[in-house]
């Protein structure tokens, strides 16, 4: 079990010669780069007694004056830096915040965070502020209507940051920078569905609820400052693009899986006693083009229509199922056959020792090479994460040319035309490996 770090050194000094400043001040510590102002994309930090200025809608770090104020960054080129926020408009040579709050990609807005520094003690609690007990975390939705991004690019990094910083808690108060209500009416329900399924398990108690920073401020209207006992900000929000960020995170992936399943009433250690082959049907891009042919072949070879049935064959597109129903279906599956992309990102919740057969893709000439793809190569989407999901055995249905795609057109988003004989061999390998 992960435990919180022991209490840090705190030794009171006599208040003389400016050594000890009177009053109470904010504190911070981080993991990640602290020697380059601009290198903050994967930095994660925990702040103690940092406050939200409700009038300015800004965070404030209360620092001691003069020589008692420590450097924040020891920049290789610029030397000691004593502020968290850098702006060219204020005379800096760069625009930089202190941490990122979501994945940074060139094709979506980037969200980052930094507090302003005030060289004075915290305001007295009774007079000017509310102190919020417990561990809080700021989180910015990346694609709130995509299961994979909510689970693995927003929720999971919060658990990782807690563990990295030594403040792991079974009860985390999550503050999102925006809620589902800012989305179009048709997207709000799906956003809430995924947030409830994958973020709320980190809350640890159903007495808590997800809220936004603005909602929190509204609940404390009239208070100039909301001060946090502990606030986690930043993290490694890039599970699908950087394998280096996932290396060593295997136990934390297992922990997150266990917390999600337990939250929804599913025993994380339960193992099925009979085989279920789950065929995942996806319409549109990246689907299985000849799905009906695949379904009939798997059913005749392994299912109820087989001469000697080996498995219960289930077909789903997940649409119309609640998240509990989806997770329950996945939890009893021993072999999942799925297109790549977001629809496959519920499969890390498969039971221990289950197999996932994942469709590969091939880039076309006009596709962006975001993962180092090579021409004519069979590539696995979300490979950077899948390689570290240790409890699931991965089998890959590889693609090698035009004949493997609908319309004979390879591409990152093209539907795959499956050779049922090749797929059958992968299923038989999976069944054999799961023998006692």
Identify the notable features of this structure and list them briefly.
23% helix, Rossmann fold, alpha/beta, five-stranded parallel sheet, elongated, 436 residues
Apparent shape: elongated
Number of domains: 2
User: In angstroms, what is the radius of gyration?
Assistant: 25 Å
* Chain-averaged pLDDT: 93
Q: What share of the residues lie within helices?
A: 10-25%
What can be said about the biggest beta sheet? 9 strands, mixed
Class by alpha and beta content: alpha/beta
Stretches where pLDDT is under 50 for at least 5 consecutive residues are none
* SSE string, helices as H and strands as E: EEEEEEEEEHEHEHEHEHHEHEHEEHEH
The number of helical elements comes to 10
- Quote the distance from N terminus to C terminus: 30 Å
Tell how many strands the DSSP assignment holds: 18
Taken as a percent bin, the fraction of beta residues is 15-25%
């Amino acid at each position: 079990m992960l435990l919180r770090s022991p209490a840090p050194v705190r030794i009171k000094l006599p208040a003389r010669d400016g050594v000890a400043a009177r009053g109470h001040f904010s504190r911070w510590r981080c993991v990640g780069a602290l020697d380059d102002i601009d290198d903050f994309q994967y930095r994660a930090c925990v702040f103690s007694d940092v406050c939200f200025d409700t009038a300015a809608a800004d965070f404030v770090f209360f620092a001691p004056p003069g020589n008692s104020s420590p450097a924040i960054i020891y920049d290789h080129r610029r030397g000691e830096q004593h502020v968290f926020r850098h702006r060219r408009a204020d005379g800096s040579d760069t625009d930089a915040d202190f941490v990122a709050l979501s994945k940074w990609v060139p094709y979506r807005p980037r969200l980052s965070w930094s507090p302003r520094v005030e060289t004075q003690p915290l305001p007295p609690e009774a007079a000017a502020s509310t102190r919020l007990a417990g561990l809080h975390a700021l989180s910015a939705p990346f694609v709130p209507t995509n299961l994979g991004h909510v689970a693995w690019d927003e929720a999971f990094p919060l658990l990782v940051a807690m563990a990295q910083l030594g403040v792991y808690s079974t009860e985390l108060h999550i503050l999102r920078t925006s809620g589902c209500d800012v989305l179009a009416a048709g997207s709000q329900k799906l956003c809430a569905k995924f947030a409830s399924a994958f973020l709320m398990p980190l809350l640890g108690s159903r007495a808590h609820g997800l809220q936004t920073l603005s909602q929190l401020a509204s609940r404390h209207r009239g208070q100039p400052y909301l001060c946090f006992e502990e606030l986690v900000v930043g993290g490694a929000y890039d599970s699908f693009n950087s394998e280096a960020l996932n290396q060593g995170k295997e136990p934390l992936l297992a922990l997150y899986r266990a917390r999600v399943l337990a939250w929804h009433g599913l025993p994380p250690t339960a193992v099925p006693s009979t085989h279920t082959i789950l065929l995942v049907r996806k319409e549109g891009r990246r689907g299985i083009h000849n799905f009906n042919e695949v379904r009939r072949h798997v059913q005749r070879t392994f299912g109820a229509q087989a001469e000697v049935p080996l498995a219960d064959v289930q077909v789903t597109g997940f649409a119309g199922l609640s998240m509990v129903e989806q997770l329950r279906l996945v939890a009893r599956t021993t072999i999942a056959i799925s297109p790549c992309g977001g629809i496959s990102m519920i499969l890390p919740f498969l039971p221990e020792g289950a197999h996932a057969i994942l469709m590969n893709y091939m880039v076309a000439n006009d596709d962006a090479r975001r993962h180092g793809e090579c021409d004519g190569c069979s590539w696995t989407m979300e490979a950077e994460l899948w390689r570290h999901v240790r409890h699931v055995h991965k089998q890959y249905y590889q693609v090698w040319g035009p004949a493997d795609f609908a319309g004979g057109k390879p591409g990152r988003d093209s539907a795959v035309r499956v050779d049922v004989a090749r797929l059958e061999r992968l299923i038989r390998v999976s069944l054999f490996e799961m023998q006692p």
